[in-house]
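Anyone opening a protein record will find just a pair of labelled lines. With that in mind, the following record should read easily:
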Amino acid sequence: MITFVPWRRFSLSFLQRSAHTSPSSLPHPPQLSLLETPDQNAQARAWLGKFKTQEIPKSTVELAFSRSSGPGGQNVNKVNTKATLRCRVDSDWIPLWAREQLKRTPSYVSSTESIQITSTVHRSQAQNVQDCLAKLHALIVSASAASFVNHPSDHQKERVRGLERAEKARRRTDKFKRSALKKGRAKGDWD
């Protein structure tokens, strides 16, 4: 006997199955909540360098599919090509220092404490899934890099000091010229 299983039931069981697998191929970030010292920045940059070369596996996120909207004829009404990706912000492969930045993005859903990304760009489901994963990857990279503290080098500090001295000298000469102009107006003989 064949029983009918609605699409929603199938997608929920798929979501539950894929959400509990562990990300084995992604590098684990260092356990740093803030990046304050140059050593912590170096560790975070090393992790980000490794993470940029990796792709996020499908098993680390929850995926759901639905019908896309917009033009496309009858295909739009028949095929579930829209991909919706959901990923918990407190996943162990997302760095601690990037989580607050991720919570400020428009993709963050506060009720589930997760990031939700959708894609309807392509006509195929697989391409939309890859697009969602690429968007998530870019979002995590940008949130991780936003927390970096760039300490200026000695050369940069000296250059800034030189620019400040030049600005003060320029301001002083401008003030002197303006003062001389005003003095010239006040002591004029109008005979």
About this structure: The longest strand covers residues 82-88. The radius of gyration is 28 Å. DSSP finds six helices and four strands in the chain. Residues 154-186 form the longest helix (33 residues).
